[in-house]
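This is your field. Have a critical look at the following sequence-structure pair:

***
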Amino acid sequence: MHPFQHFLPAGFDQVAADTWANGERIVIQPVFFDLVPDLPAALTDLAALRQGLARMAAAQGGALIEADVVPVGGQPALRQVIKVKLPNQPHGQAFLGSYIAPKATCSAVLRVQAAEGGTTGQREALVMAEIGPANYFRPHPYGPDGEGGLPSHVADDPAYDARFPQHPLTRVRQVLTQLAQQVELHPGFAALPPFTP
């Protein structure tokens, strides 16, 4: 059993074991891993954590968009957002947000996922048309180890979320924010020894 409590926003219905979705096809999955976390660094070393996570995402063909350490249910947790190509499709991306609460020998992960549907790439095309290709692509914010997967570009910036309120990246960020305000962790899990890499 996962240790998350009060993690479901309004409008989500259970569609499978430990899987909930809403009418926008946003999916929430709480997962418990009874394994030592595979995080590349401690939560207290944010620079090394970001660089290692960026390298891991790029190696899998995706890209780390952002990573921060924030409180969730009174515990420090990694908040990350990753983009990946839609499997078996020529175009489109899925956006995967998560909170990872690591402990010495286990971890709790709360995932939020949303994918592009219909016409894909509109957010990216409109932003590129406005600022031009020369200003659109940028070095990965967490260093060269994030290169090799999907490209880093300006359209992923949170500043554009208000202009694209229904975009899956925007919606993943919104649901993550909502979850952070309401999620609680089971006291037994919260009391476990902390993660040290």
User: Anything to note?
Assistant: The CA atoms of residues 33 and 107 lie 5 Å apart. The beta strands are 4-5, 13-16, 19-21, 27-33, 63-72, 75-85, 93-102, 107-115, 184-185.
